[in-house]
Write a structure and sequence with these properties.
Blueprint: H1 11-36, H2 40-51, E1 57-58, H3 59-66, H4 70-83, E2 86-91, E3 94-102, H5 104-125, H6 130-154
Helix pairs in contact: 2-3, 2-4, 3-4
């Protein structure tokens, strides 16, 4: 498929559009979290747990992916367990560590909420060529790295 022609945009204009999308996404995450009986941080962590698939995340890995302290992740896991979304299991390679496993029904509940939005996004991606989609994917990967670096700098972890 050939990509469509696009109107020109400067980096500043693209950043403004990204800011609008991110702002709307933040509100959306709050709405989804509320619908699931969670807070946004817990929803974010649940997303990482679900995204790990068949390889359960170690609690420390979850902390790193979510940019949280291990102490904060302990609270998140307590809440996710209480709400029935996930549970801890011993790490088979190191009994001092725990891994986080999603409850099978959790994925179903989350997919029910996100699937209509993801279907809309797939329709949007259908209007882009594979090469354009690769550029978009690369941009999000690199932008996430920049965001992580900025967050670390704000928290005083990096110079």
């Amino acid at each position: 498929m050939q990509g469509n022609s696009r109107p020109p945009a400067t980096a500043g204009e693209a950043i403004q559009r990204m800011d609008a999308y991110v702002a709307l996404g933040l509100i959306g995450q709050q709405e989804v979290a509320q619908a699931l009986g969670l807070n946004v941080t817990d929803l974010t962590c649940l997303g990482h747990v679900l995204g790990a698939g068949a390889t359960p995340l170690a609690a420390g890995d979850l902390a790193e992916r979510a940019n949280l302290t291990t102490g904060a992740v302990t609270g998140v896991l307590n809440r996710l367990e209480k709400a029935g979304y996930a549970h801890r299991v011993p790490d088979p390679g190191d009994r001092r560590r725990v891994r986080v496993v999603a409850d099978p029904d959790a994925a179903v509940r989350v997919v029910e909420i996100y699937q209509p939005f993801y279907a809309r996004l797939e329709e949007i991606f259908a209007g882009y060529s594979p090469e354009e989609t690769a550029v978009i994917s690369d941009w999000f990967t690199r932008a996430a790295g920049a965001a992580r670096d900025h967050l670390d700098a704000l928290r005083g972890r990096k110079e």
